[in-house]
Each structure stands twice: as structure tokens, then as C-alpha cells.
Amino acid sequence: MEPILKIEKLSHVYSPGTPFETAALRDVDLEIYKGEILGVIGHTGSGKSTLIQHLNALIKPTSGRVLLDGHDINASKQSIREVRGRVGLVFQYPEYQLFEETVKKDIAFGPKNMKLPPEEIERRVMKAARFCGVGEELLDRAPFDLSGGQKRRVAIAGVIAMLPEVLVLDEPMAGLDPRGREEIMENILAYHDETGAAIVIVTHSMEEAARHASRMAVLEHGTVALSGTPEEVFSHGEELRRMGLATPVMTDVADKLCKLGVKLPGTVYTVEQMVNALLALEGGRHDAP
Amino acid sequence: MDNTVIKIDDLTFFYTPDDEDAAPQDVLSGVSLEIEKGSFVAVLGHNGSGKSTLARHLNALLLPKGGSVTVFGMDTRDEALMLEIRRRVGMVFQNPDNQIVSNVVEEDVAFAPENLGVPTPEIRQRVDEALKTVGMYQYRTHAPHLLSGGQKQRIAIAGVLAMRPKCVVFDEPTAMLDPQGRRDVMKIIGRMKNELGSTVILITHHMEEAALADRVVVMSDGQIVMDGPPRQIFTRVEELEALGLTVPGTVKLMWELRKRGLDVPLSTLTVDECAQALAARFAGK
Amino acid sequence: MLRDITLGQYFPGTTVVHRLDPRTKILMVVLYIAALFNAKNWISYAVVLAFLVFAIAVSRIRLSAMLRGLKPVVFIVVLTSLLNLFYARGEPIAHWWIFTITREGIKAAILMAARLIMLVMGTFMLTYTTSPIMLTYGLELLMNPLKKLKVPVHELAMMMSMALRLIPTLIEETDKIMSAQKARGAEFDTGNLIEKAKAMLPVLVPLFLSSFRRADELATAMEARCYHGGEGRTRLNVLKFAQRDYLAFAAGLLLLAAVIALKGFGL
């Protein structure tokens, strides 16, 4: 399958030639495919944030290239403008970037910058608001009057309104309560399912990556240390723990069970898988209600 | 001997609305709670449930509109006791960036003792001690804004410990941290409880952290709706989910298995407990 | 990048210069500036420059850091030098249209550039080697006599140190907000001046809001840590003049005296 975004030998050095010189990324190769959900994991300072800012040309590579449909995104001003429209980037705590008088105007900021006709902007705002569960009654309110979770969803809608083919989110659920986290994740999945956009989620939470990602990339010291399906990645439990990353609780339980002499088939990393694996051990006698 | 260090009696609080005609909305309505010396209490609740507002009453940052809050025998409404109350009840906030006051680590940690007029040699002693407790002593001359989020939060904790408080309230201290930072903060909380004998009140959204407490208090709409040991609270899976909360993954697993008719215990809060219970049930299969 | 602004940034260290009492350093900067403005000729400039170079060498501040700090003032330096170049009267050596360059003009331009650069570098020495808290503490103590005139010295000092504390955070924040708005297609480098100013709105509004939020949270955190104004406060690091302070102060006085003496000799 053709990747929509292809990162080739990407390196990035901050403050080159100064005492603060640091290599944030080294020779990173990574592909993002149409319609996939890629979980990017790594602890603070692993290069995650630097990596995703390369995906829509906010940072230029020190060396290497980022290709969108095979074309270098940094080739020209035009290509940069194009990638900003096609690859949407939601930063951490995006609600702190809201600035317009009304929710509607704020969501329209991206489409407006894309110089779309007014009817199209209107259409997209409504669509994005719907994806993000931002009710019509909120559209004319000031974004600053909303609750934390609502603000977050408005901010994400502001990026979704550009209808990006790749939606990149940096810790989209950070700081929210469990229900808020659940809602945001549902919004993102709705956008993914209906438009077929590729989703890249940067997260600390192994549980969330385990539940939703179709593929994962683990970053350490500016390189991709592990990548593959969640099964493949979570089978490297020891390595993940050595990197200071937590493995999903269910993987930990499965590992312990194995030590206690109960062997489960395959790699287990979600509650659902664990239930099924244990039921299989029982001999499939118990059907789910 | 009375072991109660914090006594909240029928506490009501609301913010005065900007619009004078609007009726004020209660943020806390009729909260009563007693906290024992040396205990570790986790407070859960969805955003807007009143947890943080409750926390801010414990060191007189907010004062009751109705009812009373008594900490270490002192009524928080007594203005003359304000400093004494804040010295006894320290508070760590969510965003480390917004609680660090100095550009040098040790000067930041010294801020509270300086405010309290502690003599200089003793400030030095307290600062060093607090930085060692949080494992940041080697960073004492660094600039905090160049440290990681987890390290900054440890500095903020040291800044509170330097007051030598008897009780520390943590208001979502790990919400903005990565797993490593989160583990470090939880380790420090454990040390404070076990080695320093502090009373710890932890507001959190992370059920795994709450599972480590002696007692879990659940809030919703400005009221306390559940109160008990974690082993008991977390078995009330459906009630918690209805409140917009979750349970630790290990409990969730057991609950799903029980739903399917398997006879497994529900109150397994740790991975070890969970694995052992499952091993006992599935051994030899 | 905004991050490169090092104005008011402290480089921690343990050299003699770092350990000097902030009051000494503030007074030395005052003496140094006085000397600089009394310098009228190559020789006196050389004396002041030697003093500066010596201080930089002892403090082990990298020259690159010093030069980077000059970046924001390059424009002013160039502008004032040009003005001096064209406006000084004297013996013309080149002439073009309405511009006349004189020997005196060249000298004035070079000396003016040197004066400005040395002025900036000298004050940077203070901020590079003194933690902002120490700096404000020093200022607070120096201004203490003003308390008698009901000047809120402690409050001013605290405001200043809070501002200094928040600068790096706000710079980082500005960077982040700009990136986020760029990701939504905002362009900050196209269009005329008015369009550019308008384009900054999506950055300035969130920045103001977040500054207020931060200030509010910081104030709460300070209260929680028993802050209640300057009354009865003690200090972790108490300022006490040491022998080195007297020596440094003497050196500063000597510098000023030397420059004034040179001026007296018409040099």
C-alpha cells in the first residue's frame, strides 16, 4: 500500500553550533498509511513533538525529507501551504489557542486561511462541530465560557474543519477526566471512520494506544526503537519497561499469569482480549451476555 | 486522643455571580468530611464536581460560605490563623510551571520558609532536606524552566515540604506528567506517608493512583457520594461509571469475567493480586 | 526563533563575578556606564574595554553568548552609527548627493557603535552572572531607603522577579501558539504591515489570556506557600559584603577616576 506521508532519513538538530545543541531526531524512517491509526509513544524528550511538527512543515528537517504523496512538503511555499491543509496538527492543550469571539468563528479560522468560499467554510464548520460533539447552541457562544472538555473539542474541531487527510494529535486527552477522555476519543474515531483519514495519536497512555491503534511506533532518543502492530510492540514488554514506558496493565497481568503457570495464547493488551483469552481457557463454555 | 486533623462540617460554597440578579450556583453543597492523622485519602470526581474547590478550603485559600472547616483545631475563617493553617496544610497544584516562583531551584524551594521568617541557617537545612526527599538535590542550582515536567513537579513538592507541613493536599499533581514523572510523584507521596507520617490528600483522575490510598472519597455535583476503602469503592463499577469515572483495569477485568458468570474476586487492585486470583481460578487449564 | 532571545537570562556559575554581591555588581555597572559616557577618546575607550574584557574573561561567559545577546540591538547600533556618520561636521573626505562623510563623522560613528555595544555588554554582564532573584534582592536593598518615602520597594522587587520568572515560560508559550496557528494555515510573514499586525491577533489573544491565567495560578500558589508581603521575610541567601566586593568596588571607582583623569588631560 502507498503511504500518504513518508518520512525519510529525517534528522533534526536544535540550536546547531551552540552549547545547547541537541539532536532531537536521528535518521527516522516512518510511513503513515491512508486510513490507519498510528500510535506514537515515547517519554518526554524522545523526539515525539519534534517529529509531529515536521509532518506539516512547522519545522524544517536538518536533513532528510518528508513526502506527501511522494512530493517533498518543504519544496516550496505552495507545497507548505498545501500540506498545512492536508495534514492537520492538534497541539497539546489546544484549548489554549482559541482566540475568536465565538466558537463558530474559531472553528472557521483554518478553512478561512485556506481561502475557501464562504458556503464551503460554513459547511465545514457545521461538519467539524458535529464530529466533535459541539452542539449548535454552543456555536455563537464565546469559547472562553465553555467547560474544559468543551473547549478542547472546539479546538479539535478547528483543525478537523480543514478536513485533513492526516489528523495528528499530541496528547489529545491529557488532563481530562475519564468521561472527557472517552468523548474526545469517540470524536476522533468518528472522524476516522467517516472520512477514512489517517490518524496519528501521540500519547503516553499505553492503554489508549493499545485500544485504538492499528500500528504503533515507539520513539527513544530520537529514533524509532520499535514499530509494528500493537501485538508486536507489546510482545517487547521488557524493552518497553526499560525505556521507562509502562506496558498496558493487561499485558502485565498476562506476564504475571505466565510466571504463575497459566499460559495465555497470543499477546494480550486489552481487557476484552484478556476476557476472551481466559474464556478460551475455560473451553468457551461461557458466552458473552 | 482525637486523631482528626481535618474536620469539614456541612460546607457550602458558591462563587458570587458577576450578574447581581443571577442566583449563585452552589459549587459545594453540604459537604461533611473528617480526615484522620496520617491517612492517605484520594478524592475522585469528574471535572466540575467540586474537588478542587473543596481542596482550596483546606488551607484557607477559599473560605466557607456556609458550614465550617477546621484544620488542626483551627477554624479557617479566623484570619489571624491563616499563616499557621497554610504552614500546616501544604498544597501542590496541577501545573508545575505556574507554581514555581524562582529561576533557581533552591531559591524556589526556600520561598515558603522565607515567607515564614525562618532563620537563614535553618532555611538552608530545610531546603537541602526537602530537595533530598524528592531526589532533586543535585539540581539545586539549576534553572527550573530547563527541567522536565516531572522534575519541575518534584521541585514544587519540595517547595511545600520545606514548610514542614503536617498535611499535604495534591490537586491533580500528575495530570500533566508522563508515566515516569507520574511514578516519581507517587513514590514521593508514598515516602511522605510512610517516612514523614504526613497526612496526604490526593485529587486525581487516575484510578490506579487512587487505588494506592487508604480511603477513597468520590464527589459529584458538589457533594460526597461515596466514601470508603478503595477495595470497597472500586467494586461499585456501575455506579462509578455512571458518575463519569472508571475503575482500575484489573478490577474492570474481574467485573467483565463475573458478568460472564465466572467466579472471581472483584477487589483485585494490583496486577499481582489480579494475576494470583486468576491463577488460582485457571490453574491447570 | 523567539527562543534565542537571551535578554535577562542568567548563566549559572561559580566564578568570582558570579559570587560578587549583587549590590556590588549593580554599583559597578553604574560606575562602568558613567566611565563609558565620560570616555571621549580612543585611549579612554580602550581602558573601559579592557575592564569589560577582563570581567568577561573572569566570569567565563562565552563570547558567543555575549554576541547572541547583541542581536536585538544591532538595528539601533547601525542606525545611530549612520546618523553620527552623516551628521558630524568636519573635514569632508567623501561626498555624494546630500551626504557628506567627514573624518570626524567616521570617528563618531565608530565610537558611538563601540559605546552602545559596550553599554549593552556591560549590562548583560550583570544579568548573565546574577540570578534574577539576586538581582531584584540587590535592587530592593539598594532602594530600601526609599521606603521612608512610602515607595513600595518590596512589592516592586517582587513584581520584577515574577516578570523575570515568567519570561522564559511566555516565550515558550508564544512559540507554541504561533506553531499551532500556523498549523491552522495562519501566515505571519506575508502581506503589508496592517495585515501582519492583524495576523498576530490569533497569537496575542491566547497569549494574554494564558498570561492572566498563569499570573492567577501563580498568585494562588504563592499564597498557599504563605506569601504575605515583605514583612518578616527572611532569606536563604543573605547578602553580606565580602573582601572581594570591596576590591571590585574599588576597581570600578578606579576605572571611573582613570577615565575622568584622561578626560582632564584632553584624551
Description:
The complex is a heterotrimer of chains A (289), B (285) and C (267). With 289 residues, chain A is α/β, with parallel strands linked by helices. Chain A has two domains: 1-90 and 164-178 and 196-229, P-loop containing nucleotide triphosphate hydrolases (Rossmann fold, 3-Layer(aba) Sandwich), CATH 3.40.50; 97-163, no CATH class. Chain A is 39% helix and 22% strand. Chain A is built from eleven helices and ten strands. In chain A, β1 and β2 (22-33) form a beta hairpin. In chain A, α3 packs across α4 (118-131) and α4 (118-131) packs across α5. Chain A is globular, with a radius of gyration of 21 Å. Chain B has 285 residues and is an alpha/beta fold. Helix content of chain B is 36%, strand content 21%. Chain B has helices at 51-57, 82-88, 105-109, 111-115, 120-133, 149-161, 179-194, 207-210, 230-233, 237-242, 249-259, 271-282; strands spanning 4-14, 26-36, 40-44, 66-71, 74-75, 89-92, 167-171, 199-203, 215-220, 223-228. In chain B, the strands form two sheets. Chain B has a six-stranded mixed sheet, sandwiched between helices. A four-stranded antiparallel sheet of chain B has the order 2-1-4-5, with helices on one face. The mean pLDDT of chain B is 92. Chain C is mainly alpha-helical and 267 residues long. Chain C has one domain. In chain C, 69% of the residues lie in helices and 3% in strands. Chain C has a two-stranded antiparallel sheet. In chain C, 30% of the residues are buried. Residues 1-7 of chain C have low confidence and may be disordered. Classes of the chains: A alpha/beta (289), B alpha/beta (285), C mainly alpha (267). The interface between A and B is large, with 42 and 42 residues.
